[in-house]
Amino acid sequence: MAVHKLVLDDVFEEALFTLIAIHCTIEDYRLAYLLNKHLGINLVRKPLDLDYNNGKSTYSIFEWEDNKLLTKWNLVSNICKTQETPKSNQQSLFSTQQQITKTFNLIPEHKGVNYFLKIDNDNNFRKEAYILSAILNIPQVVTAFNVDVNQLKSKDNLIFS
Question: Residue 5: phi, psi to the nearest 5?
């Protein structure tokens, strides 16, 4: 009996995108505005946020498609804070309504990062150093750095389509 061997190296090619982590304390819309201004792009908020865990955690997302360079830019929040009221214990003398704040991260490996800038490009993208330099020149940004996507365990969370 003949043995057939299938080689699937080219089929499951890694996604080609650049991921830049941004640490700052400003709101997402202000950061999108500053990135638009300093990078010459046009990020626009998507009508629906990213929804994980059936609404337990949602992350704001901004998007822009550059048709000239065939590039898609996404600015996504890494932190989602939700408030919950615990179920009241009927046996207590006083009813206390405490709010519990839970924090969820889109990429748990980088809990200190506030936002990620994902740049999808099928071609070789060579502007990473320029983009990182422009982001670091924004006064409200504390720090920004490239993230090696191959080292992330939760890189499936970066699939937005």
Answer: -115, 125
Q: Which fold has domain 17-87+95-151?
A: TATA-Binding Protein (3.30.310)
For 34, phi then psi, to 5°, come to -65, -40
Instruction: List the one residue out of 146, 148, 54 whose CA is nearest residue 104.
Output: 54
Task: Give the start-to-end residue ranges of the domains of the chain.
Answer: 17-87+95-151
CA distance 34 to 51: 25
Q: What is the pTM of this model?
A: 0.81
Per residue of the chain (161 residues), give pLDDT as tens: 677 776 655 444 455 788 999 999 999 999 999 999 999 999 999 998 888 777 678 889 999 998 888 889 999 999 988 877 766 656 665 666 677 788 888 999 999 999 999 998 866 667 888 999 999 999 999 999 999 888 888 888 888 77
